[in-house]
Amino acid sequence: MTIPHETNDKEALAKHACLSSGLEKVILVIDDDEELLNLNQSLLEMEGYTVFTAKSGEKALQLLEHIPQPDLILLDFQMAKMSGPEFLLALGEKHPKLLDTVPVVFLTAMDRIPASRAAGFIRKPFDLEAFLSEVHNFIEKRAPHEPHQH
User: Fold this and answer.
1) Of 3 and 123, which is predicted with more confidence?
2) What pTM value is reported for the model?
3) Is residue 98 part of a domain?
4) Cα angle value 125/130/73 (rounded, 5°)
5) Distances (CA, A) of 83 to 7, 33, 57, 93, 128
6) CATH code (residue 74)
7) How are strands ordered across the β-sheet holding 104-108?
8) Within a domain: residue 12?
C-alpha cells in the first residue's frame, strides 16, 4: 500500500502502520526533488520495504510523529528550505533517541560530506544494484533492533 506524499490524514498513516507486519523494514525518504522521491520510493517498495516520503525536512519531522520508527532515513543533502544537515540538527532536538538508533544516510552528488551524525552517504546518481545493496547494509548495521512502535 502506498501512502500519498505528505498526507495529512493521520488515520490513514496509523492504519498503514498497523497493517505492517512488523517484519518489513521501514524507510523514510526525504527529498525536495519529487521525481527522485518517487523513483526511490518505487525502487525500495519493489524490494519489499515500507516507504514513507517527505518533500522537506519540516514535513519529515511532522511525519515522524505518525509513522512507525524507521529502520533507515535517506536524506537529500541539499534541499531548499531545510538542508540535510539542518534536518539532522532538528531531528536531534526533537527525537534524540531516534537519532541514536536509526541510521540517517545522505543522498548527495558530493564525493565527501562534512562531519555530522549521519551514518554515511550514498552518492547520486547511483547504480540501482549498488543503491539497494548500500540501503540493505545501512539497515543491517543499525543499532540493536527495537520493535516498531505502532
Assistant:
1) 123
2) 0.78
3) yes
4) 75
5) 21, 13, 7, 16, 25
6) 3.40.50.2300
7) 50-54, 26-30, 72-76, 104-108, 120-123
8) no
